[in-house]
Design the sequence.
């Protein structure tokens, strides 16, 4: 059997390396009774939002009763629910079933939503019933009418902050942030906004797929890194951001707050990006803000620069619903993307017209976000586009649970879980870390080189860098301590760093993680001292 070297592993995505680390850690734990298998390498949270889920399943019972009201044949065949009078029937049904989990929330939610958004009661409740039953294709295909209104306001809070931008965002409900990335890349290429050989900028460190997708043969893009260094608190310096002034850079992709850095962009950085956009008004920005809800008062680029920005959001982390696959793409009604497409050469526009000609007599009138919808189903299947309707109901219930929570108790609870785990890890590491208002507490980057220079000295670090591969720490953690973390280098983070997820393991293991990291670093110091004795 071939022996795989660390240099060979280095060519893999950190998420693929994790599979090897997991096997090594499980083997170690199986042979050592004093160790526990700890996998803090993935960001799937180990908590869930219970209230909107209880409401979802209880509301399903009401929806079935509405189906049977129309048709109830002995083999178990129901009909399609009817809208007239359905809001009053929902109120009556909930009163009769007030002991069902989530019934009290639904009783409060329906009138609150109708009053808050000015919805027609029967139209709103019927949309929920028909959608949770899932007996129709999504209509409109981009997003259900009432759901889009609700989610739009939720995203104003989750991504935009204060002050809210003027105008309206159009939302496309998609199968998680993963699908959002794929669809956006595809439409950028199909509409010649990004072509093979073009250059984009990435705000690094960054979620690994943003590093890998542009290099695929499908896109063949060149990349300029705009780097947020640890020494600068993982904020972009003015000098780094000035790279965006280069006219050959077509787009700037950023994850905010960062993954893996867990740091949100500061007001200073956002202001600097604004100065750049004044000089480069056609620069495209893609912002992935899935962790913004873990930073109180978060304000992202979508809120600051709606004209230039595509917003990607996933519900997965905040509500503990990775398996639901709930995400959104947001594009402002007044945006640079429609302008850039319209300004393409006539010959190019004719080619693009052919792509969308079966959808409308006037393909040039199709907005950019509706092109994303069509491209998500290779255009020919546009009539079956759209996120599953039961998924859209759960998305709406998640959104409404947050909008109705004026004291933000759920947000404080989620942040509190992560904060406690951060404190435990820091305690295990034996270090002090100051408060940072931009830190989301969801992930942490721990840099072995940075830690060792402070605690064991530069001479040890220099020896380690000359004699040890940067992937060695994650393998030492797995093989010696049963701990699985991701290598920071796979995110374009410092080469000797590791990413810890504070979301997916029980509280009590995080001090063990800190001690394991410290033990590996101390082991390098001991190896250095042994090498000096041998000399």
Sequence:
């Amino acid at each position: 059997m071939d022996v795989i070297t660390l240099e060979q592993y280095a060519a893999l995505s950190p998420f693929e390396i994790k599979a090897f680390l997991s096997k090594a850690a499980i083997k170690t734990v199986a042979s050592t009774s004093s160790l526990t298998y700890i996998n803090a390498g993935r960001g799937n949270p180990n908590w869930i939002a219970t209230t909107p889920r209880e409401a979802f399943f209880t509301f399903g019972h009401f929806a079935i009763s509405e189906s049977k009201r129309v048709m109830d044949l002995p083999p178990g065949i129901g009909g399609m629910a009817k809208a007239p009078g359905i809001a009053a029937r929902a109120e009556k049904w909930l009163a009769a079933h007030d002991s069902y989990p989530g019934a009290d929330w639904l009783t409060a939610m329906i009138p609150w939503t109708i009053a808050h958004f000015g919805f027609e009661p029967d139209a709103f409740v019927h949309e929920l019933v028909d959608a949770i039953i899932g007996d129709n294709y999504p209509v409109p295909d981009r997003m259900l009418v009432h759901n889009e209104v609700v989610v739009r306001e939720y995203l104003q809070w989750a991504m935009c902050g204060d002050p809210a931008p003027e105008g309206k965002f159009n939302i496309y409900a998609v199968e998680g942030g993963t699908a959002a990335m794929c669809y956006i890349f595809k439409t950028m290429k199909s509409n010649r906004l990004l072509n093979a050989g073009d250059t984009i900028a990435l705000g690094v460190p960054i979620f690994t797929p943003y590093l890998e997708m542009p290099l695929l043969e499908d896109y063949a893009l060149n990349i300029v890194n705009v780097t947020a260094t640890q020494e600068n608190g993982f904020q972009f310096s003015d000098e780094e951001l000035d790279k965006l002034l280069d006219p050959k850079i077509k787009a700037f992709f950023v994850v905010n707050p960062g993954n893996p850095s867990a740091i949100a962009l500061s007001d200073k950085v956002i202001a600097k990006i604004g100065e750049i956009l004044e000089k480069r008004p056609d620069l495209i920005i893609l912002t992935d803000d899935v962790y913004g809800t873990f930073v109180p008062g978060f304000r992202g680029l979508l809120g600051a620069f709606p004209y230039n920005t595509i917003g990607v959001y996933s519900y997965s982390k905040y509500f503990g619903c990775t398996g639901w696959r709930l995400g959104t793409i947001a594009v402002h009604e007044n945006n640079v993307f429609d302008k850039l497409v319209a300004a393409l050469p006539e010959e190019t526009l004719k080619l693009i017209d052919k792509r969308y000609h079966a959808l409308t007599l006037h393909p040039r009138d199709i907005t950019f976000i509706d092109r994303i919808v069509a491209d998500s189903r290779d255009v020919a299947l546009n009539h079956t586009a759209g996120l599953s309707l039961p998924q859209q109901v759960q998305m709406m219930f998640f959104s409404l649970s947050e909008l109705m929570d004026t004291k933000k108790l759920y947000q404080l609870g989620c942040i509190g879980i992560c904060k406690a785990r951060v404190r435990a890890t820091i305690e295990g590491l034996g270090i002090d870390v100051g408060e940072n208002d931009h830190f989301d507490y969801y992930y942490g980057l721990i840099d072995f080189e940075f830690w060792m220079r402070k605690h064991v000295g530069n001479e040890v670090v220099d020896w380690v860098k000359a004699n040890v591969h940067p992937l060695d720490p994650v393998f030492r953690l797995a093989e010696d301590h049963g701990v699985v973390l991701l290598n920071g280098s796979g995110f374009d983070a410092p080469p000797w760093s590791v990413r810890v997820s504070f979301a997916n393991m029980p509280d009590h293991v995080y001090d063990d993680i800190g001690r394991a990291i410290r033990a590996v670093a101390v082991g390098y110091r001991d190896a250095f001292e042994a090498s000096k004795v041998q000399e």
Observations:
- The longest strand covers residues 249-255.
- The mean pLDDT is 95.
